């Protein structure tokens, strides 16, 4: 791309390097130019399909498989790029087969693909429209966010993602392991891109058990569950393990591979239909009808199978959306696949063994506290309101099966399962078999403040925060808890939520009944507007603080002290702290499970109870600020002469602090945050 020279001048170099030209378009002076080469001895046939402006489209063939590759150099002139975008849309109609486009597009599609300079919505929209019209998506990229940079005025650098690789759904399905690596640049202002098509990697260790929702459609599976549960009736953990064991045998001996059964039935139906063209036999007609019914059942099972893996809430079952669910699953897996990261020492690493070891060390250090908090001195801090007697009675009342059933019905049936592999759909479908034992173990948990440790085992899924994560900090560790554990914490939430307004002040707007998430946003807008319009000599200031890894760093001692200070009954404190402290964590790394470890701090993101416990911890910061305001140390702002003082607003872990714009107030804010950090 943008070769700056003619191909003839470098032909001998490429011959000595063992490459031959497939096709080339020479540069015009120092502008444009595109060469497509292949290695000598490569048995993939490459035929030129079309050449247009600075683009070349070739058909790559190996045996009966073929796909199309378009190499692009888009002009820096916007009007010329529009002409090229229109041509790509027209070319889409002529391409029959998987299609990949790569090169210098000289445009970006979103603000996050630029650092410095101005973003043009019009130009971005034009390229995005082409991608939408042609059903093209970005191939997963690693190694860097931007592919071009150049100094501008004042020696300030401008970075953009001008080069990209995009594909359509058939190409994505043909190469599910493909990804793009942004390589280091030397003399050019562009980074080279390396497309790695890849082969599926061998999963290390035994394949973890996952309940298949399609089993429900089999007439014999209900008996399998009933028989397995009856072997250890009254012992919930062993019952669930027996269902796992018997389900694996059932899947192997009775249910089988859906795709293979589908292919076999298609062949049998084709044979019968061919036979009916020659002879008219009633037996064949009846057989065709029975096989057609069986085939319809397999189609339903296939749809359920891919819907379960797609994890998509907005589209529903029943419309034969199998292809959509399959595609969604493949794209999600590719996006979550980790091919390379910067290690803590700054080095770029693509070795999977090294990355697994570094990931284990990073998250183990994150969830394991090296120092103790100052929560022992929490009694000296400000005292807020406590729960009343009605709330305490609600938290400690006897568990009923109806209450457990209600909590189960509130859960999404296809949410990602925990280590035991059972989603909510299993318990909902077979509640008449398993319900009594589930209700019994939950009732025991509320009575004794504990439950079998295996229920609290947790998987950690690493979800990218950005399109191209560069290090471990750019992943969000989401905890996948077992369904029965989530039922326990869901019941705690249902009992606690109506009374949270008793102990959480008006400055927090997240997770509380009767409070809208936009309430504090409106107050913030009014505050900023008032500050800008104010003509007072002494100004006001506002700090927006995002607490890094806020959930993961909460001290357990601090949490327990907050529960006691807010008047939680001892039985509830014991159960909540057991839920928090009894967990063991296992990181999921590219499908593989790393060795488990025991955390010593933090709240699990993915646990229904965690957001409410975090809000409770943040309320202590609110109480410190209120005390400082009352003592005259913190000077809040007022939006009008007689308006109420405004010192802080909370959006879960996003903190907004308001004060007079003086150095002493800035120092006081820093001291307050330091005090809260020492406690928590």
TrEMBL record:
<dbReference type="InterPro" id="IPR036691">
    <property type="entry name" value="Endo/exonu/phosph_ase_sf"/>
</dbReference>
<keyword id="KW-0695">RNA-directed DNA polymerase</keyword>
<dbReference type="Pfam" id="PF00078">
    <property type="entry name" value="RVT_1"/>
</dbReference>
<dbReference type="InterPro" id="IPR000477">
    <property type="entry name" value="RT_dom"/>
</dbReference>
<keyword id="KW-0808">Transferase</keyword>
<keyword id="KW-0548">Nucleotidyltransferase</keyword>
<protein>
    <submittedName>
        <fullName>RNA-directed DNA polymerase (Reverse transcriptase)</fullName>
    </submittedName>
</protein>
<dbReference type="GO" id="GO:0003964">
    <property type="term" value="F:RNA-directed DNA polymerase activity"/>
</dbReference>
<feature type="domain" description="Reverse transcriptase">
    <location>
        <begin position="444"/>
        <end position="680"/>
    </location>
</feature>
<dbReference type="InterPro" id="IPR043502">
    <property type="entry name" value="DNA/RNA_pol_sf"/>
</dbReference>
